[in-house]
Amino acid sequence: xxxxxxxxxxxxxxxxxxxxxxxxxxxxANALGEFLTPSxxxxxxxxxxxxxxxxxxxxxxxxxxxAAFKRAMGTNAGFKLDGxxxxxxxxxxxxxxxxxxxxxxxxxxPVTDVVVSVPAYFNQGQRQATMAACAMAGLxxxxxxxxxxxxxxxxxxxxxxxxxxxxxxxxxxGTFDVTVLEHFDGVMQVKASSGDAFLGGEDxxxxxxxxxxxxxxxxxxxxxxxxxxxxxxxxxGAKRRLGPDTDHVVTLRVDGQEHSVTATRTMFESAxxxxxxxxxxxIERCFYDSGEGIDDLDRVILVGGAxxxxxxxxxxxxxxxxxxxxxxxxxxxxxxxAAVQAGLVAQDKALDDVVMTDxxxxxxxxxxxxxxxxxxxxxxxxxxxxxxxxxxxxxREQVFGTMHDGQTSLGVDIYQGExxxxxxNIHIGRLxxxxxxxDAGKEGISVRITYDTSGLIEVEGTSLTTGKAVQTVIRENVxxxxxxxxxxxxxxxxxxxxxxxxxxxxxxxxxxIRRLYEMASGADRHALSELLLRFxxxxxxxxxxxxxxxxxxxxxILDRLDDFYVS
Amino acid sequence: MSADHAVWPWSALGLDSNxxxxxxxxxxxxxxxxxxxSDPAQFQPLQEAFNAAKAQAKPAAPKPPSMAQLMQxxxxxxxxxxxxxxxxxxxxxxxxxxxxxxxxxxxxxxTPTEPTAPPQAETLQNPPAKPxxxxxxxxxxKPWGASTEDLDSLLQTNPYAAETAFNKKLDAALHWPWxxxxxxxxxxxxxxxxxxxxxxxxxxxxxxxxENITDYSTTIAPQTATLLETHFQWxxxxxxxxxxxGRSLDFQRVVNCVSGAVPSKGTSRFTMEQxxxxxxxxxxxxxxxxxxxxxxGTELSWDxxxxxxxxxxxxxxxxxxGLIFLTVALFLIPGAKKSLTWLGNRVAPDFTADLTRSNDxxxxxxxxxxxxxxxxxxxxx
Lengths: 567, 381
Prior knowledge:
The complex is a heterodimer of chains A (567) and B (381).
Chain A: E1 6-10, E2 14-21, E3 24-27, E4 37-38, E5 40-44, E6 47-50, H1 52-60, E7 65-67, E8 78-81, E9 84-87, H2 88-107, E10 113-118, H3 124-136, E11 140-146, H4 147-158, E12 164-171, E13 176-184, E14 187-196, H5 201-215, H6 225-241, E15 248-254, E16 257-263, H7 265-290, E17 299-303, H8 310-320, H9 333-345, E18 355-357, E19 364-371, E20 377-386, E21 394-401, E22 409-416, E23 426-434, E24 444-451, E25 457-463, E26 469-474, H10 483-495, E27 497-498, H11 504-519, H12 522-541, H13 544-566
Parallel strand pairs in A: 1-10, 6-27, 10-11, 12-17, 14-18
Antiparallel strand pairs in A: 1-2, 2-3, 2-4, 5-6, 5-7, 8-9, 12-13, 13-14, 15-16, 19-20, 19-22, 21-24, 22-23, 24-25, 25-26
Helix pairs in contact in A: 1-11, 2-3, 4-9, 5-6, 5-7, 11-12, 11-13, 12-13
Chain B: H1 9-13, H2 21-34, H3 40-56, H4 67-71, H5 101-106, H6 118-121, H7 151-157, H8 159-173, H9 180-187, H10 195-212, H11 222-232, H12 238-245, H13 251-259, H14 277-296, H15 302-319, H16 324-332, H17 336-347, H18 349-357, H19 359-380
Helix pairs in contact in B: 2-3, 7-8, 8-9, 14-15, 15-16, 15-19, 17-18, 18-19
């Protein structure tokens, strides 16, 4: 049985899954009835919580909980949950598995083929880590799509016959992307894309948290991870509630002491100033590379939860001199667009007249050297063959000559990046081409790099005299993980029990009560422990309707408490 | 191969050469839907034809002004975009008159508003002067007009005056040797959000370096280099820098003096491929070990152990340069054996006595050292 096209937005803070039905994307809600599943994993004995329950456990069980692991994709960084070590791919795989379960419950059929979105500015290593995570979650990844492009597809589908030139400003939880696109006659053409893979809403929360700690007279680096998590959580709440001229008093409890801190907009703005600076560079690069100016833009679209910050909106309005649009919920646009892309890949009939073309965000080239007049050799220079922001698929060729007399082979080291020196770029592969013996410069090879729409890079080196070619395909196998490894880890992951889905709403509520208990003081604590007892009592009776009623009632009380404590 | 050959763009799109932009776009869209757009051999020529035709096609109709432009009609930014590279006058240095002619063309709307600007600007400590109307100011009297920090608020009320004041301050800051602090403050201003102005500033800075550093041995101060890197990424975005300035005759020299000052950070936080030789080298080390060991048999003397230890470190040094100093240190210590025994006597006299007596113990210690070394090597790499 084939399922309808599915798209996944695997975010730093939240993840979503959407399905394409009748040419229109629709988000799938999780067991709690919410579209946003927090990308947080928490270990509870031998069971794992993913999503909302895990996020609430972050405050109560910081050493058993991992969040924002998307930032570590493509690195060897490990996360310890209760002493067990997980990689960023493992944790992402768990989130993907959770989303898959939700989709299967909603659609009533197994889900395998998906399109997953990644930040446009993810490099090859980070993309491969995402591919590995999909494999470990038992998903068959059809295509990776760049997040801003996905958002543009979601917007483009609303207005199929429109003609416009627009910019997608995507500030997510952990990454920042800017993309300039052109939309006409059903063609969605990306002109340039740039970004910062380490800038997002989480950085703003962190900056505010540090400022708050400073105001309370606490030294941030000296705080324990648990205290830091607590302050970060409070800062995150304050960030969401900070209006144009409203201040928020937050109570921080550190080492049994209470510190009252007033979070103001000015304080947040000065703390975030260095981050705002970093936003300008990718925008400039994008304009320069696309050859467009601000005046050529018709619309600016905001995507990503962090664009809700008034600071960001006013920056965008100032920079582009127009009011940005958010007609689609900025948290939803990427997942919706990923589902559209899944439909395009599956050649869904309803999308027959829609075509999307994307660009490569990084230059790909090889290492070269040159001989100086005094005979010394200077090496390590990066010669880009496919420059960044080239429309994909692309295939380009350049000829390189030998440097020494009697040289019999040329080593081709392939790099991705923008720096003039190879050591600052990312090494992605290598091949060696044999050439007949001759004097320096008399023999040569042509190097052709082909970059296809699914992000696969193929390099071919051909000797000009013999015509013999050597090829290499750069994809999964360059990472340390082989298919065997993935299969092994897949097995290991299957052993990890996800918390039962039908039980999720209850565990989420329990975690939430416990989290509030940590935050609360005095009489409220007492009331909360009573709530906890009451709810556990209802759970023990195992009467679904009663449990449901109690859950609704308690949630309301908790909402009020939450408002009180974070504001 | 066809992708590398030039094709007449209009014939590739099935149009004639006086097609409008609208026609070019729809022809491109039609063809794109018809071809297999995952095949570069079909996609690339079409793409190139589209870009070439688009660049030359007549726009179907002039674009209506955007809402924002209508709202702030007196904004000097509404001037038509000028092509990159032509906007930077290379010789603006000492005469900070309103910059290029096309600005003047755009300014008639802006100029009349200037006399009315001061009421709004009353809150500033220094009145924002009447810069544009008096074109003959003294060349370099320090800050006149608004202070650098006030430029942001001036930009809101009177963008044209802000730009003029900005340019004057830039002239002052770029007077060789630069006033780095003043330059840093200027580069942080909101006026730099305008990509066109930013490019112009970048070109002025480039020219200033090119004029004042004429040899290959001088580099700029690291602090200045960091400042330039923060704003223009000449080093980390070498590809973009080359696109903008690659044709300048001074390019190599500027690259040299800037990149020499910026420490190469190795921005690649992710290396995808471990060096493949590493494991081979470690394997070689282990094999050497196994061959060496029987040569000594059970009659392993202290001297042999020390020798082997030194060989190990040498081999390790081949693998990791960081260990070289250790090797050297060992070679330099005269009588490594004596010093080791001395150390042993101080730290654990009983154990050392055992060691000197029992050969088995020596072999064991030798193995322990090997094991620790190998583990350390694996851990380090």
